[in-house]
Inverse folding.
């Protein structure tokens, strides 16, 4: 069994559980579970609470495990298999790890999930972080513009058999038009409401703009987590997305 991408009617907001304790994460999940499309567990919470919390939340809700694996192909593939055993809905690797790393992970993940009768998580590749811009890329020896590099890595991810990519909403439309494979998804962080600050994000859009550009799922943290009424903040964002989807 394989997880599937978003449909028009599906909830698209992935709430980022960017907190440092399992108890705080559980509180947010209890508050928002009925309206969130999924919950993201990243490096901060995973380091603090470990895989047990991933299993716990995955038992009731979709979980996007955002650990951005980047290592030799065998190591990443084996890590991906363990992620599937946690029951997550989706996880990611750095597309910059190369086609062999991505292809090996995708192939071995699906083989083991078929053999063990596990739901195969969506496997997506991180292109260019939304905290990065062209100047940051140049510090690493990459002379391409951020948009060009994101497109290059997205194409490589698609050719390597991944289900989609993580990319800035500013690249979504170009990725969608460049990759014609049905069901290839774009997950976008760097989404901020009109009233929110950008914080450490450099390439951002509002939820309505991101969905209009073709984003399938939006990862949103601080605009929801820092709101006085988290549930109301999430509902407002969902209404904004619904308006864009049905335009």
């Amino acid at each position: 069994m394989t997880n599937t991408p978003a449909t028009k009617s599906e909830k698209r907001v992935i709430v980022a559980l960017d907190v440092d304790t399992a108890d705080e994460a559980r509180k947010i999940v209890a508050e928002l579970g009925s309206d969130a499309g999924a919950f993201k567990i990243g490096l901060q919470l995973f380091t603090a609470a470990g895989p047990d919390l991933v299993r716990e939340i995955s038992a009731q809700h979709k979980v996007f495990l955002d650990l951005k694996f980047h290592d030799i192909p065998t190591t990443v593939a084996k890590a991906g298999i363990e992620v599937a055993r946690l029951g997550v809905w989706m996880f990611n690797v750095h597309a910059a790890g190369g086609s062999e790393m991505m292809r090996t992970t995708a192939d071995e993940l699906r083989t083991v999930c078929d053999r063990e009768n596990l739901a195969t998580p969506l496997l997506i590749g991180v292109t260019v972080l939304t905290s990065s811009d062209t100047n940051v890329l140049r510090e690493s020896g990459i002379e391409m513009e951020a948009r060009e590099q994101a497109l290059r890595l997205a194409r490589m991810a698609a050719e390597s058999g991944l289900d989609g990519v993580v990319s800035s909403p500013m690249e979504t439309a170009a990725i969608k038009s460049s990759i014609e494979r049905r069901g290839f998804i774009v997950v976008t962080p760097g989404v901020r409401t009109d009233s929110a600050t950008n914080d450490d994000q450099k390439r951002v859009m509002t939820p309505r703009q991101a969905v209009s550009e073709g984003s399938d799922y939006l990862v949103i943290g601080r605009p929801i987590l820092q709101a006085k009424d988290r549930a109301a903040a999430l509902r407002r964002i969902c209404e904004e997305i619904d308006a864009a989807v049905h335009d």
